[in-house]
Design goal:
Helices cover 63% and strands 1% of the residues. With 297 residues, it is an all-alpha fold. It has one domain (45-280). The chain starts with 5 loop residues before the first strand and ends with a helix.
C-alpha cells in the first residue's frame, strides 16, 4: 500500500510527505521471521483458525462431537486388539485410558504435520493473489489442531475421573501432570518444523504430497502408541529405532503425565534439540520456497 511518494530504481521509497506502508522485497533472510508483521495480521490468523474449525465438521450430523468420538473410537479399537488380545498395554491400567493417553497426542502430532504440509498447495489460490505473511496458514493449522487437542484432553480428564469415581481404577497422575504444557509445546514445535519442511519441498516435488500421509501412518508404528517403550527389550534391534524417534519421549511423557507411568524425563532434552533443529530447518526451507512459490505452484 502506498501513501505518497515514488519508488526509486533501487527499490526504496522516498517522498516529501509520506512513505510506503509495506515494502515487499524479493530476498529475505530465513532468520528474519517478521513476527511483528504476523501480529499485525492476527485478525486474519483468527479467521483462518475459525475457518479450519468450522469447515471440518460442517454439514455433519454429529458436528463437533466427532472431536471426542475420534480418539475414543480409536482407543477402544486399540484396547480390544492390542490391549486385550495382544496384551501390549501395561497391566493395572484400563486399556482404554492407556491408549487414549497416546492416541490423543499422536493424532495432534500427525494432524499438524499433514495440515501444515498441505498449506502451500491448499491455499494457492489465495496466496498467489493477496499478500499476507506466508506463515499465517501453517500457524492457523497448528492453532486449530491445538484447540481440538485441548478439548480432547479435557474429555480425557472427565473420562478418567469417571473411572476413579466408579472405583474401577484409582487414577492418580501425580506432580508429573505439571509437565503437560512443556510436552504440548515440544510436540507443536516438532510437528510444525516437520510440516514446514514438507510444505516447502512439495512446491517442487509434488510426489511428497501423496507420500506424507502414508509416511506419518508408518511413523506411528515406530512410536510408542500401540505399545509402551517398557514392553521392548533393551537388547531388541527395534529399541534403537524407537529411541531415535524424537516423538517417542513426548508420547511416553504424556503417558507419564496423564497416568503416572514410569518415565525417564531426561530424554525430553533429545526431543527439544530435534524440535529446534527441525523448526530452524523448516523455517529456512519455507522462506526459501516463498521466493519462487508463485512460479511453481
Amino acid at each position: 500500500m502506498k501513501k505518497e511518494g515514488a519508488m526509486t530504481p533501487e527499490g526504496g521509497a522516498h517522498a516529501a510527505e509520506g512513505h510506503w506502508d509495506v515494502v515487499i522485497e524479493p530476498s529475505t533472510p530465513w532468520w528474519r521471521l517478521n513476527l511483528g508483521e504476523i501480529w499485525r495480521y492476527r485478525d486474519l490468523l483468527a479467521e483462518m483458525v475459525k475457518r479450519d474449525l468450522t469447515a471440518i465438521y460442517k454439514q455433519t450430523i454429529l458436528g463437533p462431537i466427532w472431536v471426542l468420538l475420534q480418539p475414543l473410537i480409536t482407543s477402544l479399537m486399540f484396547a480390544v486388539i492390542f490391549g486385550l488380545m495382544a496384551r501390549m498395554a501395561l497391566p493395572g491400567i484400563p486399556p482404554v485410558l492407556f491408549y487414549m493417553s497416546a492416541v490423543m497426542p499422536w493424532s495432534f502430532f500427525a494432524g499438524v504435520i499433514n495440515k501444515t504440509a498441505a498449506t502451500l498447495i491448499t491455499n494457492a489460490p489465495l496466496m498467489t493473489k493477496v499478500y499476507f505473511p506466508r506463515l499465517i496458514p501453517p500457524l492457523s493449522s497448528m492453532a486449530s489442531s491445538a484447540f481440538t487437542f485441548l478439548v480432547q484432553l479435557a474429555f480425557f480428564f472427565v473420562f478418567a475421573a469417571v473411572y476413579r469415581i466408579s472405583g474401577s481404577y484409582a487414577w492418580a497422575p501425580g506432580i508429573a501432570l505439571l509437565t503437560l504444557p512443556l510436552l504440548i509445546i515440544l510436540e507443536m514445535l516438532l510437528a510444525l518444523g516437520t510440516g514446514l519442511i514438507v510444505a516447502a519441498l512439495t512446491t517442487k516435488y509434488k510426489d511428497l504430497n501423496f507420500l506424507i500421509g502414508f509416511a506419518v501412518q508408518l511413523l506411528m508404528y515406530m512410536s510408542p502408541v500401540i505399545f509402551p517403550l517398557a514392553k521392548v527389550a533393551p537388547d531388541s534391534p527395534v529399541r534403537p529405532l524407537l529411541e531415535a524417534n524424537p516423538i517417542t519421549p513426548v508420547i511416553e511423557g504424556f503417558r507419564g503425565a496423564l497416568l503416572g507411568t514410569a518415565m525417564d524425563w531426561s530424554t525430553l532434552w533429545y526431543s527439544a534439540i530435534c524440535a529446534s533443529v527441525l523448526l530452524l530447518a523448516g523455517l529456512a526451507l519455507f522462506q526459501r520456497a516463498e521466493r519462487s512459490y508463485a512460479d511453481v505452484v
